[in-house]
């Protein structure tokens, strides 16, 4: 079963190299309610592994990474605290 939740916030980091998508996520995750999902749109291959790694480091939950039709991913992160 896949858990797809409508993101409360979408961060458009397309065209930006890591660590910019992670910096944007770290700056904005506290603006969504607890347990809400933030979608990070990124096309830097490093973001595909770095965002889930950041989630483990910061104790947030990587919900899933979904391919975008024009390339890149929507990486969904659930705010845990």
UniProtKB/TrEMBL annotation:
Domain UPF0033: residue ranges: 11-35
InterPro entries recorded: TusA-like (IPR001455), TusA-like_sf (IPR036868)
Domain of life: Bacteria
Family listed: Belongs to the sulfur carrier protein TusA family.
PANTHER family per record: SULFUR CARRIER PROTEIN YEDF-RELATED
Protein name in UniProt: UPF0033 domain-containing protein
Organism: Nonomuraea antimicrobica
